[in-house]
């Protein structure tokens, strides 16, 4: 297949909110600096649903969504030296080129090398897509497009991993698990004894709980409007549960009262701007830090009284948990293999790519953490 166009199945999003369509698509060979990957397993993340909904200002249609996956390199383009056909890999929406201003700064995991192309749904070389159907291009998504049996990504977006690792599990290291752990370990740097509040107990919120527990937090307060989430959340380290619907006063006040002045760290894992405000305002005066993880729709803005920051609260955000993707995803795979981090526990459903619309329905019903699809 090397050097040839591959015809394979993919789930195509033609229009916002219209069911994905399983189509036979054409995947062009990788060009210079590109890698073609046979995707074996892909999970669904809330961000896929967000872009599909039409609320993502970078959303383009038709496109192939998906960004939490694992597979095997099928072929590589000219000049690609770090991976070769047969390597087991995780595509990373957050690239790491090690050469750009961002990578060299040592201050961030964001990489600038291919970001303009990935945001425009194309490849950097020729600003064109490698996907087509009957000659019509289909846009890429987040530089990954994993809802397809084959995808083409930039070489700076490929993490080579231990070939022994089970791909149907470590696919979650493409997004949700690193995001939650890294938000705690890298962005907030939670210390032993800290009091933590987590808003939203979906997969990302539960991974934050796991991370906070591992960091030695003394109290981990889970906040969700769905009380069914608490039983599950306890297994991931949540020690107390608060449902905002059970109170008349604002949730930030409830948390301040529960914690003698506020929490040390809070995490917003929903994508709701009024919850982001509450998450900041429940932080302790003088030092409390709030980390935004949730992705909010186009046009949404956050607000608070500047006095909240003047009096020492800190507002932060995190992308991919601050992890350097190519360097650290293989390390996270190794940690999973040594049973130092959980993955299996976040997978509640397994299906095939043909059932992808049903998988999204499950996500919206709330009875599902991660659903892994065999492609
Ligand atoms: P999810 O839908 O599984 O979880 C969201 C949870 O929030 C649910 O349990 C829901 O009941 C709860 N919730 C909804 N409204 C609430 C409210 N008003 N108050 C309290 N709880 C409420 O989503 P997920 O896959 O865990 O992702 C969470 C968010 O993180 C999404 O916005 C996703 O796009 C984002 N995300 C960001 C990054 C990043 O790098 N920054 C990475 C992955 C995901
Ligand atoms: N296109 C969106 C941005 C969405 C967003 O913030 N994405 C996160 C990852 S979410 C993964 O589930 C991210 O890494 N952002 C950094 C980046 O460079 O995109 C919008 O709203 O514009
Ligand atoms: Zn994601």
Short recap of the structure:
26% of the residues lie in helices and 23% in strands. With 375 residues, it is an alpha/beta fold.
Q: Find the count of extended strands (DSSP E, 2+ residues).
A: 17
Cα-to-Cα separation, first versus last residue: 18 Å
Mean pLDDT: 97
Order of helices and strands: EEEHEEHHEEEEHHEHEHEHEHEHEHEHE
Strand content bin:
15-25%
Contiguous helical run count? 12
Distinct small molecules: nicotinamide-adenine-dinucleotide, ligand AHE, zinc ion
- What's the story with the biggest beta sheet? 7 strands, mixed
Could you characterize what this model shows?
By secondary structure, the chain is an alpha/beta fold. It contains 12 helices and 17 strands. It has helices spanning 46-52, 101-105, 115-119, 167-170, 176-188, 203-214, 229-235, 251-258, 273-281, 307-310, 325-337, 356-365; strands at residues 6-12, 21-27, 34-43, 68-76, 88-91, 131-133, 136-138, 150-154, 158-160, 195-199, 219-223, 240-242, 265-268, 289-292, 314-317, 347-352, 370-374. Strands 3, 4, 5, 8, 9, 16 and 17 form a 7-stranded mixed sheet that branches. Strand 13, helix 9 (273-281) and strand 14 form a beta-alpha-beta unit. The longest helix has 13 residues, at 176-188. It is globular, with a radius of gyration of 20 Å. The model has no long low-confidence stretch (mean pLDDT 97). The protein binds nicotinamide-adenine-dinucleotide, ligand AHE and zinc ion (ZN). It is an enzyme of class 1 (oxidoreductase). It holds the Pfam family ADH_zinc_N. InterPro entries: ADH-like_C (IPR013149), ADH-like_N (IPR013154), ADH_3 (IPR014183), ADH_Zn_CS (IPR002328), GroES-like_sf (IPR011032), NAD(P)-bd_dom_sf (IPR036291).
